[in-house]
Amino acid sequence: MTSETTQILTRVQVEQKIRRIAFEIYENNFEESEVILAGVSGEGHVLAQRLADVLRQISPLNVKVMKITLDKTTLQQPPVQLDAEETVFTQKSIIVIDDVLNSGRTLAFALQPFLNVPVTKLKVAVIVDRDHKRYPIAADYIGYKLSTTLTEHVLVVLSDEERIGVYMR
To answer: Which parts of the sequence belong to the Phosphoribosyltransferase domain (predicted)?
Structure first.
């Protein structure tokens, strides 16, 4: 990290947020036999895997993790790719997971594959909610709400064991 980078959440704080979100997911899905955690490729998918690990420790839920692959930079989104067949998540409780909710654009595209399939629940989880919405997307499970300017960049690091945390530049 550069000298202009400020650490917002430490590794311990991030792990606490993940654990709390996992308990909230269990609390809202205790009647379900199975929960699908669909993580947006990158840190969103890593967050989904970490949430799954905690859920398996604290609950009897059958937890499956899947990856949502999309291009976060393009204006016209090609079809979103899932690493599972539709039958895996039909009639299941699904939580779509990303690291940061900023404008809502990425999550709007990430939700698309689940809108044409009957599901019991469809929720959103993020570790950081910046609240700069341009799309009507809200997170149901939030680790940390952070007020920022539009020019500030929030970086969530979960895949680098040495630097796990949330940073702002």
So the answer is: 5-144
